[in-house]
């Protein structure tokens, strides 16, 4: 019994009780350019219920086997649509999914990792609606010059237009979490992004923000010291938090072409 409770806590299980909020989240799906929706961590299925009403092709990815049994018993959805897996280990190519939206009240302790996983497969994911811990949602939508601006803001906004939808209070969950929640929507930028090297962008942004008080000339020393005319790179006298998403892209592209 004790072990069971411990595992539940570890899996970040805070179930939404308010059906109106569940409906409001699902209603934000646009179905523009996709007809398949994948839900991360369906839990007891409060979102799933509405999802099945509006979408004919739904897949559920849930890590907890007990909940998998519950979902199979309570929803008319075929076995191959309920995937018992850790989302962070899921590759959409396994089931030949090439174009789908993601939705979920995400397990908060792995929300950054979920976002990185989405960015890894962004070519397949035109839209994502997710509930995050409010502070994380605020970081994702933040802009340069703000305290909350960081790695997640730059990397997510390189590939997606982001919008904060609404705040969700703690008491609508059981068990009640310690934090407020925020629902956001990501819509993939359809204009082609001129990015030379995605890995380099990720590395630069992480390195720059890991020493956010230093100017880029110092925080990015590892990358730029090998470049002969590195002093011609733009923005070297600025700090990470002063650079816009577009400027980060510009800087990384300049590093890439000089390498
Ligand atoms: N969507 C439900 C449950 C939210 S709680 C609701 O709104 O009520 C988070 C859910 O994510 C739980 O069902 C938990 O078991 C599941 N989960 C946690 N980590 C996961 C992971 N790595 N991959 C898939 N599901 C996960």
Q: What do you see in this structure?
A:
The structure is a single chain. The chain has 259 residues and is an alpha/beta fold. It folds into two domains: 2-188, Rossmann fold, CATH 3.40.50; 198-258, rRNA adenine dimethylase, C-terminal domain (Helicase, Ruva Protein, domain 3). It has eleven helices and nine strands. The protein has helices spanning 2-10, 19-26, 46-54, 65-74, 111-120, 134-140, 151-159, 198-210, 216-219, 221-224, 245-258; strands at residues 15-16, 36-40, 57-62, 82-84, 101-105, 127-133, 160-168, 173-174, 181-188. It has a seven-stranded mixed β-sheet with strand order 4-3-2-5-6-9-7. Strand 5 (101-105), helix 5 (111-120) and strand 6 (127-133) form a beta-alpha-beta unit. Helix 5 (111-120) runs parallel beside helix 7, helix 7 packs across helix 11 (245-258) and helix 8 (198-210) crosses helix 11. The longest helix is centred in the last third of the chain and has 14 residues, at 245-258. It is elongated. Residues 11-16, 40-44, 46-47, 61-64, 67, 86-88, 104-105, 107, 110 line the site of S-adenosyl-L-homocysteine.
Keywords:
259 residues; Rossmann fold; seven-stranded mixed beta sheet; two-stranded antiparallel sheet; 18% strand
